[in-house]
Amino acid sequence: MIIQLIKTLEKLQPAKLIQISQALELDMLKTLSLIADINNKDEGLIVENAGVYSLSRSINWLQYSKLKELLAQHQLPHQFVLFEQTGSTNTYALNNIANFHTFPIVINTALQSGGRGRLGRAWSSRIAHDLTISLIYQFPLDFNLTIIPILTAVAINRLLKNYSVRNQIKWPNDIYVDGNKECGILVENLLRNQINHCVIGIGLNNIGNWERNKLTVDLINEVDKLINEYKLFGFPLLQREWLDNCIHFRKNVTLSHGGEIVATGKHNGITTLGELIIQTENGTQSFSNSAYSLQFAK
Length: 298
What we know:
Blueprint (H helix, E strand, L loop, with lengths): L1 H11 L2 E2 H8 L3 H14 L4 E4 L2 E4 L8 H10 L5 E8 L2 H8 L8 E8 L18 E9 L8 H15 L5 E3 L3 E4 L2 E13 L2 E10 L7 H22 L2 H9 L7 E6 L2 E11 L5 E5 L2 E5 L5 E4 L2
Parallel strand pairs: 4-5
Antiparallel strand pairs: 1-3, 2-3, 5-6, 6-10, 7-8, 8-9, 9-10, 11-12, 11-15, 12-13, 13-14
């Protein structure tokens, strides 16, 4: 109903509450509640002036036909599943892998009500403006899945550079622009029928108000290229690129787990498994990316 209200207001605006309610066949109290819910999820999306409602920005809808056209231009084989609203694209992907028969798959939604990040953190996005997307790939059993977060971070870094945005990577795969986190990545894996299924969840803030169809396919293209580069050339070049764009490389960092500090020292690199290498008072230590939170001196 949230998406339906936005689409209704998009057609009617500017509109009075009674007009919106009649179009939705709702009472005005329920309509007001929906408007409040929308503005709670996407602050200021619907504005009111003297009893008249309108949208504060144009809505950047995805269009299946446009996506297919752009995929064809890049010769990408990905299949799309588009939602107006879902809880989490990653959760949907993991729960429905058995129903997919061709890969890669792209799950995308205009509104994600239960977006998830690393370590159980929530991820919120503006409705039909930011990107909330999950990519599903199949890999053989001997593929190094632990490197996927690192590869994805490099892909997003390249994507934003192509859009003339200077950005940096925070271990393992957060993307920062001008000191603010603008992209989060959550990689989850599922073994089924002796095949690794890798779900790459990406929440990317549309800081440039870019056209979402093009931004979506450009993102897919960069991720796909990074995976193929890794298959062809291995990890060293991509490892170097990740470090060259890391916001805290050769700086002092602190790692914590469950709120407890576990290590402090100088960040010296990453291993071929994507582990963080820190020079501590007790010597060189490496840490996996799945359980630790990193802080650094800005």
